[in-house]
């Protein structure tokens, strides 16, 4: 039975970042203004047992001071198929756990997150698009 379930699930799924700002950037606000904008690459070809890299570009919004991004998080918030819930059973996300990321004024850095479709993924996730939300914790730091 498992083999029969796995066969139809080999069709590609895709993952897209939620676009809330201009040019596909997601704005991550501080108390006064956005410090970081985040954009991810398009990931396609997900199927059970396969992992794909999601490359996030973190862009500093401050052109005068460096910022430090302490934490980056990616969440699956929705899918295009009604029966395919945005849960870890359908799309596992290995978060970035590296060192804090220092971004010079007005520049950008890339961070890699791993997306993995488990063998237990719901049959309803065939041809689904997963909508991802990116968040980050950042602060201004003195430039060096």
Short overview:
With 144 residues, this protein is mostly beta strands. 3% of the residues lie in helices and 50% in strands.
Summarize the SSE layout with pairings.
Layout: H1 2-6, E1 13-17, E2 26-29, E3 34-40, E4 43-46, E5 51-60, E6 66-79, E7 92-94, E8 101-103, E9 108-116, E10 129-141
Parallel strand pairs: 1-10
Antiparallel strand pairs: 1-4, 2-3, 3-5, 5-9, 6-8, 6-10, 7-9
Report what the structure shows:
By secondary structure, the protein is mostly beta strands. Helices cover 3% and strands 50% of the residues. It contains one helix and ten strands, in the order H-E-E-E-E-E-E-E-E-E-E. It has one helix at 2-6, and strands spanning 13-17, 26-29, 34-40, 43-46, 51-60, 66-79, 92-94, 101-103, 108-116, 129-141. The chain has a five-stranded mixed β-sheet with strand order 4-1-10-6-8, with no helix packed on it. The protein is elongated. The protein starts with a helix and ends with a strand. The relative contact order is 0.30. The model is unreliable at 1-16 and 19-23 (pLDDT under 50).
Oligomer: single chain
Helicity range of the residues?
Answer: under 10%
Alpha carbon gap, first and last residue? 60 Å
Q: What value does the Rg take, in angstroms?
A: 17 Å
Kindly report the average pLDDT value.
79
Core attributes:
144 residues, mainly beta, 10 strands, disordered N terminus
């Amino acid at each position: 039975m498992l083999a029969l379930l796995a066969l139809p699930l080999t069709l590609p799924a895709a993952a897209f970042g939620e676009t809330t700002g201009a040019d596909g950037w997601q704005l991550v606000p501080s108390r006064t203004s956005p410090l970081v904008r985040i954009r991810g690459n398009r990931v396609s070809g997900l199927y059970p047992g396969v992992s794909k890299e999601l490359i996030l570009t973190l862009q500093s919004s401050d052109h005068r001071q460096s910022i430090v991004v302490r934490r980056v998080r990616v969440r699956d918030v929705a899918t295009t198929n009604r029966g395919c819930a945005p849960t870890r059973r359908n799309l596992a996300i290995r978060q970035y756990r590296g060192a804090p990321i220092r971004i010079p004024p007005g520049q950008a850095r890339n961070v890699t997150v791993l997306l993995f479709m488990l063998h237990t993924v719901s049959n309803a996730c065939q041809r689904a698009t997963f909508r991802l939300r990116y968040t980050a914790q950042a602060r201004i730091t003195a430039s060096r």
